Amino acid sequence: MASWLTRAGSHGEHEQKFLQESRVYVNWDGILHDLAKLPKREALLDVLKQVYPDAKPKKLLNWTSQIWPFAQEIKKGDLVVQPLKSQPLHRLR
After folding, report:
1. pTM listed for this prediction
2. Domain residue ranges in the chain
3. DSSP string, 62-83
4. How sure is the predictor about 62, in pLDDT bands with cuts at 50, 70 and 90?
5. What's the longest Cα–Cα distance across the chain?
């Protein structure tokens, strides 16, 4: 079993959807493809180039490195850690 750290939007705007559905999603603006069906990493890079034609090549590679493992390797039953921005931080004493 793998463990994954996810975010539910930069301001936690997707937290409730993720929690209510017990699922996590890639919420990348403009990407409407089913990423699980892409045959190889280069295909994802091609999608990103089409969606973000003005993005710099290194940024596209960075995004590909973030999205590809999530889209291709995460499995049902894996542990997902999702820090909640909608909840105050609780510190251990």
Report:
1. 0.71
2. 3-81
3. HHHHHHHHHHHH--TT-EEE--
4. very high
5. 49
